[in-house]
Amino acid sequence: MENYITDISLAPRGHDKINWVKMYMPLLRDIEQEFTDTKPFEGINIALSIHLEAKTAYLCKVLAAGGANMGISGSNPLSTQDDVAAALVEDGLFVAAHHGATQQQYMEDLNHILDIEPDIIIDDGGDLVHLLHSERSSLQKRVIGGCEETTTGVLRLKAREKEGTLAFPMIAVNNAYCKYLFDNRYGTGQSVWDGIMRTTNLIVAGKNVVVAGYGWCGKGVANKAKGLGANVIVCEVDPIKAIEAVMDGFRVMTMDEAASIGDIFITVTGCKDVIRGEHFQLMKSGVLLANAGHFDVEINIPDLKAVAVEEKELRHNITGYRTADGRWINLLAQGRLVNLASGDGHPAEIMDMSFALQALSAQYLVGHKGQMDKRVYDVPAEIDQLVAKKKLASLGITIDSLSDEQRAYLESSE
């Protein structure tokens, strides 16, 4: 099939990136060897839409080693790396992805990869699933099932399940222990600050950092900020999470209260309009706005444009908005995922665990074809446990195990 990428000549640099992360992804290397021997995806078409950078590319190569015919796109135009896309094409995989794609081109790319008529979907945010429930619904009959990488995507799936419209089984990879405890917390925590610091070249220590959302991603962002010396404020709508933030040592208040205090604002909620026009009116000059939620709707950009009399690129990936009273409000990465649009995403060692879950969950779907209902499933516990064991082994760590007597004691009602 014809590939849809920006420049095949970029492939050598892309290969270097993929080879670098492969060195630090021992779980996927182990699975690649297993898949090469067993070919669990022989005759299977897999459509994958995840942030297309080096770690995702290696996952694609692992799935292809298992016999899969891959259709690959990105899940966010600003996170796609054209050199990585070119490297995959040079390796013989089908890719439709462009860095900086318009919304129309982005949707065209997703439709191109659906043209392979997928058996398995691997999604990040739910755009592929949405297409398969709308304009590409004719492809549903072939789909065995799929896997979803993110909190936002799982929320969309749960809504479909509740409505009774979900057309095929989906595994919520995001909800696995080995995903959210590590990827969402430590991965997001590190990569968000990497993206912010390399983009702004400003210090974090001593600043007031406002984190909107105290789920696992928000916990990671807040705790990394604390470690960098920031004064952290958390904004939440869930009273239980708010209490947790208080007991973790953070100030908790409404966004209305935080708006005039914060120096750096980071949204990590999965919701829209978290920071709005009334908040922009209260902010200090020079504030930094960043989003780490999947879609670019958490910071209301139309409201921001409405309060501005001037809009200017102040630095690469930073758009400054000057208000009538002379304040500058600075938006990073167009309000898109700051850790990927302004950085390289989560560390390789973290994504090694998440993508091991993806690969093994896809294998599970193929092995249970026709046996699963049209609903959202958790990752099977045995897969979660296997990934944890593989990770410990890769670190050279051994742990205790229960004796038969101990196991019997724990399982007894006496």
UniProtKB/TrEMBL annotation:
Give Gene Ontology CC terms: cytosol
Per UniProt, the keywords (alphabetical) are:
Cytoplasm, Hydrolase, NAD, One-carbon metabolism
The protein's location, in the record's own words, is: Cytoplasm
**Where, in this chain's numbering, is substrate bound?**
124, 149, 179, 183
Enumerate the SMART domains for this protein.
AdoHcyase, AdoHcyase_NAD
Q: Which biological process terms from the Gene Ontology are attached to this UniProt entry?
A: L-homocysteine biosynthetic process; one-carbon metabolic process; S-adenosylmethionine cycle
Q: Which InterPro entries match?
A: Adenosylhomocyst_ase-like_sf, Adenosylhomocysteinase-like, Ado_hCys_hydrolase_NAD-bd, NAD(P)-bd_dom_sf, S-Ado-L-homoCys_hydrolase_CS
Q: What is its main location?
A: cytoplasm
Under Gene Ontology molecular function, one entry of this record is: adenosylhomocysteinase activity
Q: Which pathway does this chain act in?
A: Amino-acid biosynthesis; L-homocysteine biosynthesis; L-homocysteine from S-adenosyl-L-homocysteine: step 1/1
Tell me which residues make up the S-adenosyl-L-homocysteine hydrolase NAD binding domain. 184-345
Record keyword Ribonucleoprotein present:
no
- Any keyword Iron? no
The coenzyme or cofactor needed here is: NAD(+)
What EC designation does it have?
A: 3.13.2.1
Where on this chain does NAD(+) bind?
A: 150-152, 184, 213-220, 236, 292-294, 339, 346
Q: Which PANTHER family match?
A: ADENOSYLHOMOCYSTEINASE (PTHR23420:SF0)
Q: What's its job?
A: May play a key role in the regulation of the intracellular concentration of adenosylhomocysteine.
* HAMAP family reported for this sequence: AdoHcyase
Q: Which family does it belong to?
A: Belongs to the adenosylhomocysteinase family.
Name the record gives this protein: Adenosylhomocysteinase
The gene that this protein is the product of is ahcY
